[in-house]
Amino acid sequence: MSTTKKILIVLLAIFIIIQFFRPEKNQSIAESPNDIFAHYQASENTKQLIHTSCYDCHSNNTVYPWYAEIQPVAWWLADHVNEGKSELNFSEFASYSPKKGDHKLEELVEMIKEEEMPLKSYTLIHGDARLSDVQRDELSKWAEEVRALIQPNIK
């Protein structure tokens, strides 16, 4: 048996074995009582924009595509979602201190206006998550309105 064939068999075996090691999925059964929309009003359009463009990485409930069942892609996605939630978690927003919440929304506005969010790697596959300039303005305006509600509580 040739060396190339042996290497391919070993790689195939490794690929098959790693399929049994799956990361925990980011899926909750119920909506969190700390969800941002449980505490701050938004239009249905704004809610839909945030759910479509942000919630997969920035909430406790990711909608996984079919390829999330294949390792090592699932590990990469899990890491990406965990990192996103560590930066901003809309499902736990009400648990943030007013100062932290204000800062997170300030960063949200900055990331949206500079077109850093949603990530290009995400919108490449999830075309419906792409934001137009009008949608970016709508989300920024909403975030600034929520910030105005939070700021009087900062100590």
How are the secondary structure elements laid out?
Elements: H1 3-18, H2 36-39, H3 44-53, H4 73-87, H5 98-113, H6 120-125, H7 133-150
Structural class: mainly alpha
Please provide the ordered H/E string of secondary-structure elements. HHHHHHH
Overall number of strands = 0
- Helix content bin: 40-55%
Tally of discrete structural domains: 1
Major sheet description: none
Question: What is the global morphology?
Answer: elongated
Q: Return the average pLDDT rounded to an integer.
A: 89
Strand-residue fraction?
Answer: under 5%
Our measurement of the CA-to-CA distance between the termini, rounded to an integer number of angstroms, reads: 72 Å
Cα-based radius of gyration, to the nearest Å: 19 Å
Number of helices: 7
What would you call the quaternary organization? Answer: single chain
Weakly predicted, low-confidence segments: none
